[in-house]
Design brief:
single chain, about 400 residues, Beta-galactosidase, Chain A, domain 5, six-stranded antiparallel sheet, 3 helices, 29 strands, about 10% helix, binds alpha-D-galactopyranose
Length: about 400
């Protein structure tokens, strides 16, 4: 039995090295297997360097079933994630690039960790205890943490190991006091795991040395067909929310909490994304489709099912579990076929959908929204899981 196990392990290690070495776009031929227990593994390879000459590494987490998630130290970006269809065929279901270079340029946050503040802060400013903080931004609004958000930072690896049979990657980023205009030195730790239930979990922690605001999220674009030349309008989405936060034409919440009932924003029972995406509705027009925050139900229940997406043709089902009070459901409205796809094509409008679990946009300026403040001595902790299965 043990002999069989070691032969199997030996074969596995050999095939992993072989796969890694023959993998296209790899910068180096060295592929370091950090730990391998049974089938779950975590591997590392170099992925290139940033414009500041910082080395970027790419980690591959694999579970017992052969599902793989690739995450790089730049922005903690998920560059690829495979999920099985109803025939057991694995395909990559997240948008991204084959190589590092396009990730160093402006891109729509493909697969990235977002911080210090996910989504928009109106007029790029807010006040804490009567002190106004002016944030960096390219226009008046700050989006996704500023000009150089957490998505552009190279994160430090605290741990890359198989822990209790689960491939685990623990990343850390220290954001300096004043970075992108925010007060306080913020220390953030994000732990990614891939378990044998085909669940990718993202656990966020943060502490500060001065009162600040924080709202971290993950910005993967999913296309469960595994074919990025197709749009996501046939995906059936469910969002566990009776209300949402309407926005103005600049996508800033008006402060109102509106009922979804009788509107295109009602996803309480699953419905195809395309069904009402072009409805004659002011909010749909403001968002150019769906680009809104839903107010999730059961906010005091901790981690619970908040949303799902199902692709009928492939049978792939994604379920999102989170401890967060809100979710930004974004249908890739700004994608415009200018960015190079992994398969040689380009990413067209609506070729991916995002489910960004979060606190509501512009909370620092909206006293009626759940608070995003973090004080010294407190610990920010949130968890979101993306579970893949077939239906
Ligand atoms: C979020 C925003 C969108 C857009 C994308 C990135 O989902 O709400 O408006 O900025 O990120 O393009």
């Amino acid at each position: 039995m043990n002999q069989l196990k070691s032969i199997t392990n030996g074969f596995l290690i050999f095939s992993l090295i072989f796969t890694a070495v023959s993998c296209k776009n790899q910068k180096k031929d060295t592929n370091e297997i950090i730990e391998s227990k049974e089938m779950s593994t975590i591997e590392k390879k170099e992925f290139g360097t940033t414009n500041n000459d910082e080395k970027v590494s790419l980690y591959t987490l694999t579970n017992d079933n052969g599902m793989k998630v690739e995450i790089m130290t730049l922005g903690g970006i998920i560059t690829s994630l495979t999920a099985p269809d109803k025939n057991g065929t694995y395909a990559d279901v997240v948008l991204g690039f084959d190589v590092l270079e396009p990730y160093l340029e402006a891109h729509p946050y493909f697969g990235a960790l977002i911080g210090r503040y996910g989504n928009r802060i109106a007029n790029g400013k807010f006040a804490l205890d009567g002190v106004e903080y002016k944030l960096t931004s390219d226009g008046s609004t700050q989006l996704h943490g500023g000009r150089v958000g957490f998505d552009k930072a190279v994160w430090t690896v605290l741990n890359a190991a198989v822990i209790d049979g689960v491939a685990t990657l623990k990343l850390k980023y220290i954001s300096k006091d004043g970075e992108e205009g925010y007060p306080g030195k913020l220390e953030s730790i994000v732990t990614y795991t891939l378990d044998d239930e085909d669940t990718v979990q993202v656990q966020y922690e943060a502490t500060t040395d001065k009162k600040t605001v924080v709202n971290l999220t993950q910005h993967s674009y999913f296309n469960l067909s595994g074919d990025f030349s197709k749009d996501i309008l046939d995906h059936e989405v469910m969002i566990n929310a009776d209300t949402y936060t309407p926005v103005d034409t600049g996508l800033i919440p008006t402060g109102e909490i509106a009922m979804v009932e009788g509107t295109p924003f009602d996803f309480r029972t699953p419905k195809a994304v395309g069904k009402e995406i072009n409805a004659d509705n002011e909010q749909i027009k403001n968002g150019g489709g769906y680009d809104h925050n839903w107010v999730l139900t059961n906010q005091n229940d901790g981690i619970r099912l908040v949303a799902s997406a199902y692709h009928p043709t492939s049978g792939r089902l994604l379920e999102v579990f989170s401890s967060e009070p809100g979710i930004q459901f974004y249908t890739g409205n700004f994608l415009d076929a200018t960015l190079p796809g992994k398969n040689g094509g380009t990413y067209d409008k609506r070729s991916g959908l995002c489910m960004e679990t979060q606190h509501y946009p512009d909370s620092p300026n909206k006293p009626n929204f759940p608070s995003t403040e973090l004080r010294p001595g407190e610990k920010y902790t949130t968890t979101t899981s993306f579970k893949f299965s077939i239906k």
